[in-house]
């Protein structure tokens, strides 16, 4: 019990340290919100000097938002949205029977409602942040880190990256990186291209910046929440339910990444109806960091300590101790993890489970103490 408490406290203190390692954000010091940043600024010029873009694939810039697919396809482009070529992007959660929960386009005024829901249900996610929104809602970003979520990049202005020059891609990524660093002290490592718009030229630039692209696991795991209100909420739920049922009927040797958004009240409302569908189907839920078992889910060079990847919310198998139900209650029989494997709580490994009522009690005690510490440190 003591060991679990100390481990939880250690991770929590590292997280709080990250949040406190911030610098004030002055919006006037950043590029125009929702516009592609100019590449002739002193900041971008300095960033360009830090990397060598020589050898980038010579591919034409596309047009449109999202861009139209070239016809015929361009040889060796490996254009994910058009020809399904993912290159070495991450497209599926590495953990079996696991829903890699991700939200794009935030933070927004609706994000705190989503965070309340995730906290109540003890679920963690990855948030792919738009830099323009980070500078408007830095407190929400800090809260995401404090509550154990994983942060990643979704560019500065949400423009399709295949339509931008190499230098503009650098500006999009680095300004977002700078904003998140200012808010949290953490240097982002994972990213998702807007519209899933990525080809080999974009990949080349992203790798030079140290980023790992994360797509989603095909159209069946696009929740289509972004189509609302043109598509009704009922249709979104019905369509995604079919995808979950098909996944449950499959071998489930790998997990999946969904496409969801915390951009407005509508997408947040439907998320609160979709997540329980996964829990009741005994699908584990995890962030990208936990899915990939990444003990260092941020790049080195941040001003804050490296938080451990937060855990997976284990799916209920029977009535496992520590497994999270929709209401956030904790049953009390022996634990079962993905595919029936026994799960033991390991904070450092980034996946959490439980194998005893005493451990659950320790977790409860530590949560209460951690809450008091949080109040003191953030005051």
Automatic annotation (TrEMBL):
<keyword id="KW-0732">Signal</keyword>
<feature type="compositionally biased region" description="Low complexity">
    <location>
        <begin position="307"/>
        <end position="336"/>
    </location>
</feature>
<feature type="signal peptide">
    <location>
        <begin position="1"/>
        <end position="21"/>
    </location>
</feature>
<dbReference type="GO" id="GO:0005975">
    <property type="term" value="P:carbohydrate metabolic process"/>
</dbReference>
<dbReference type="GO" id="GO:0004099">
    <property type="term" value="F:chitin deacetylase activity"/>
</dbReference>
<keyword id="KW-0378">Hydrolase</keyword>
<dbReference type="Pfam" id="PF01522">
    <property type="entry name" value="Polysacc_deac_1"/>
</dbReference>
<dbReference type="GO" id="GO:0009272">
    <property type="term" value="P:fungal-type cell wall biogenesis"/>
</dbReference>
<keyword id="KW-0479">Metal-binding</keyword>
<dbReference type="InterPro" id="IPR011330">
    <property type="entry name" value="Glyco_hydro/deAcase_b/a-brl"/>
</dbReference>
<feature type="compositionally biased region" description="Polar residues">
    <location>
        <begin position="345"/>
        <end position="354"/>
    </location>
</feature>
<feature type="domain" description="NodB homology">
    <location>
        <begin position="97"/>
        <end position="286"/>
    </location>
</feature>
<dbReference type="InterPro" id="IPR002509">
    <property type="entry name" value="NODB_dom"/>
</dbReference>
<feature type="region of interest" description="Disordered">
    <location>
        <begin position="300"/>
        <end position="355"/>
    </location>
</feature>
<dbReference type="GO" id="GO:0046872">
    <property type="term" value="F:metal ion binding"/>
</dbReference>
<protein>
    <submittedName>
        <fullName>Chitin deacetylase</fullName>
    </submittedName>
</protein>
<dbReference type="InterPro" id="IPR050248">
    <property type="entry name" value="Polysacc_deacetylase_ArnD"/>
</dbReference>
<dbReference type="GO" id="GO:0016020">
    <property type="term" value="C:membrane"/>
</dbReference>
